[in-house]
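Objective 1b: paired records.
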Amino acid sequence: MSYIKNTVASVAMLFTSMVLTSCNDFLDCEPLDKITPDAYFNSEADLAAYSIQQYKFTTYLNFDIATLKADNNSDDQAATDASTALWVPGEKRTPADKGAWDFTEIRKVNYFFQQVLPKYEVGTIKGDMMMIKHYIGEMYFLRAFQYFNKLVNLGDFPIVTDVLPDDTEALKEASKRQPRNKVARFIIEDLDKAIDLMSLTTGNGKNRLTKDVALLFKSRVALFEATWLKYHKGTDRVPGGPGWPGAQEEYNVGFSIDIDKEVSWFLEQAMDASAQVADRISLTKNTGVYNPESNPYNWNPYFEMFSAVDMEPIDEVLFWRAYNTVQGVTHSAGTYLSRGGGDIGYTRSLVDACLMKNGLPIYAQNSGYAGDITIENVKQGRDDRLQLFMAAPSDCMKFEPYEIYTKPRILEQSTDRCPTGYTVRKFLSYDPAQIGIGAGAINTYGCILFRAVEAYLNYMEACYEKNGSLDAKAIKYWKDVRHRAGVSEDIELTITATDLSKENDWAKYSAGQLIDPTLYNIRRERRVELMSEGTRMRDLKRWRALDQVKNYQVEGFNLWGGELEKLYIDGSGNSLLIPEGSSDKQPNVSNKENSSYLRVNQIVKKNNLLYDGYTWIPANYLEPISAINFTLTSSNPDEVENSTIYQNPGWSKIANEPAIGY
């Protein structure tokens, strides 16, 4: 596999094809020591080849643009079809098998440590000692990365550091779930080891993991767990809380936790790690130029950062994936975006959250907001991130044929559609070599995996959550982010002008209660800076910002406001728009009687479970564990209640059962 600029020797490829076979649970994995060559793990090159094969990061590849779609199903971004499993109570079910409860990747890392650490300790691995340490550090990072995915999706989880024997009782014992705060501390411990071992640079540049990535990821993990514990405190989703299912297990007898102390400790970890990155790495410059005039290169480093072919010189980019036509490793993100579609679109909620350049919310007196009867009006005088990363027809004049871009593509087939009318331009390239109408997966520009601005945002939030105020460092970071966005650095002006009753943003809530304006604006900054980068639902879950979501209608642009509807006229002067419920024809837009704004989930009513909007249930904060795991870990397969593991709150242990009570 050609992955992130790696060149792995054929012997390593043969090794991984033999060893790295998938297994769904502890019980169907052949012991690795039976099939691994004895001569392996004896050189720096062996370690490098093995570790890079464990890079399981989500990136663009071929026609898969999942990274661009990761914020769909939130209040930021929408697709043509939303997830009924997520937003319709009773639709999601306990899976029969598979799911998030899986140890495949963790087992591969543990096998590495079992084989490598004894050789490392006695000094028998040949090669550059600095790089030997680095690759061992990478593996600690990669185990932490896998465990963080488990923490986010499942909460409590077994902590397994060894390759387990093929023994049923030993496997059952190892399956016992550990409280989530212990899992988070284990992740931090692994990341501390990674930070200690890894280098700031490697021979493969930032296509390989580095110490800075480990520091940034540590701040992400620590902030996630701190805020989860804080806002889910007093629920069955936090160890020791009322109804916590772990309390029923004998192995948790005597367990106690001081939630507030844990929160404080994790916030301290987040602040320390994020500052080490933000203090050293500056943000990419924004020239304030919104479109290339003639030369498609070097017109705005901030915009171009997200679609650079070579991201290596960009300080803010800490880790990225490279592509190469010769190796057959390409993607289609630019192809979809240059069509104005990709089945993604920004929501009215996100667009309205963007400040004016003067720092005022759009609803504030004297904000200068020009309204939303056209998309050009929406963008006028706004935060540069909105002006750069959301397209209006006038932003696409460099593309041919231009007639494709004269109006938002709300009527096209789903792959070419912008369902909300607010077109995503982030990650688009104006490089002619990267634009291909109908040309397929021709793109070779990079995919960002970690960038330093997150460290700025993590410190700001952790500082305020810990102290209830912002220190000088947090204020500096915030001003740096706003300066780059072309927004006034007068933070207090924004906070004073914020009226939470006028903000259509799920993140103004935690646990069903409004938060204070300062914290809300910290969350707003994060939301706007990280739009389309796949962080939104993870943030909303840790903030417990979904409790109040009931019959929520996702809206896009102001289709029926008087001007935008005029764009959809055929050559005979007839409207191309068919509102839902207006005729016997297949509708293609929502009815103006419901809202003047395009409602993505109200275009078709018949057999549409989402017609009445999104409704959240608390069980969805964590994923259900698949039913097969309770059978495998029970002393009697017919009595799953005897299993050594427990189900997540609100879910049944029986396959295909919906959340309890729905």
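Objective 1b, second protein:
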Amino acid sequence: MTRTTRPVALARNGMVSSPHYLASAAGLQVLRDGGSAVDAAIAVNATLGVVYPHMTGPGGDAFWLIHDAATGSVQALNGSGRSGAAATRDFYTSKGLTEIPSRGPLAAVTVPGAVDSWCTAHERHGRLPLSALLRAAIDYARDGFPVCDSYAACASDVAEVLHAHPLTSRTLMPEQRLPAIADVLTLPRLAATLETVAEKGRAGFYEGPVAAEIARSLQEAGGLLTTEDLAAHHSDWQDPISTTYRGYVAYQHPPNSQGFAHLMALNIIENFDLSGLISSNDPRYVHLLVEATRLAFADRDRHLTDPAFHEIPMDRLLSKGYAAELASRITMDRAAPLQPVTRMGGDTTCSVVVDKDGNASSVIQSLYHEFGSGFIAGDTGVLLQNRGSFFSLDADHVNSLEPNKRTFHTLMPGMLLRDGRLDLVYGTMGGEGQPQTSNALVTRVVDFGLDVQQAIDAPRWLYGRTWGDDRRDLRIENRFPAEALESLRNWGQPVQQLGDFEGVMGHAQAIRVGDKVLMGGADPRGDGLALGW
């Protein structure tokens, strides 16, 4: 029996998993009150935006996959914001910049899309009033919540971000010191903004006083977004993309999400027989998934941006023939030569919900870097994302900055169906780690038969650049056997050994849907729980 940090959660009427226990509890209460999976997901993500403000919030973006049990369909909702109408490369290069700053008002290039996505999803799939879904978030913001381990650690790691803007410092460090675990923090301005959304819906955020204050505060600080940019924003219902993997259908969000990189990797892996491997700790398993990731990332970085600005050859990228061609390039005892990889932030949240009727949601919501831009928009209390800082100022780059454009996005919710039935709802945070962790979750469940908690707990790895460094390495948790790490080094993998349950690996959440029972897992690398009833 594979040991885990906690038992897999079991329930029959509904299940929620998120990276913070208070958010999971808020979602569970909505389910118990008769809410839908979408209702619970809104409650979870609104609450995360209060109690997990270093990772997410109403100033960020969200991507959704929704399973509608009545029709058996999977729907994708793109809640990412577009750049402002005045966001041009010339605006930045005229200031002597060669790249968009990653912090501050100039990093707030794109409209925050999360709140609109809540309202759009609720309009189609909601049962309870929006005010009921935001109640827990409002209460925690107004009355206070305890600072968790992840929040305290992130604040310490990027203290300069919190100190850079006086309002941010006063809001997130009210005693003018770094927050510590079990400190109680209140966010009264954010509570007032959420109250306005609860009363007025989308218009309470993208129009009226809240929108005016967001635009005013940014423009006074030299930023770009206007009230017109906010009013023009809208989420989009889209068809998900999919592929098959060993009898399952794997669904992902289409571009501008990087989800297709995960599907490409599954297609490549499917060319290899994993049945002869004793466990997913086998170095051959890790090597194969790393090599498949490298190949998928090359195409991701070549093509990914807003598809309204660049044609992405999705049919070819997801074809089984192309996967076989890529798989033929993998040598099982030798790593491919190192290639440049995109460096990106990875501080995000994933939440998954299944309700009593079999409806489900997988939502990835984010500010991009920890604490996003670090800029709080005046009296709104909204910490704005820095997702637009990932745009390039190179006119020839596929993800070059243009007005009214969505950027390359790391957020990628996932679902697996089998024989038309929902089987697995999953996702993770972690930037370029999201496809890699998703690859591990799916293969550990499908190929190795692990339950979702076992699959989440199992040691992981992250291939890519170390943030703030140009080195490319394979960061890997130390619970892999020493001989496995030695084999990987001998095959040319750039192994950098880390500790146990490292937060850099991201926080994954998953729910397996059985015939009679829901099975939920939450990542010990975060602060979350899977809760059911």
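The chain has a mean pLDDT of 94. The two ends are 26 Å apart (CA to CA).
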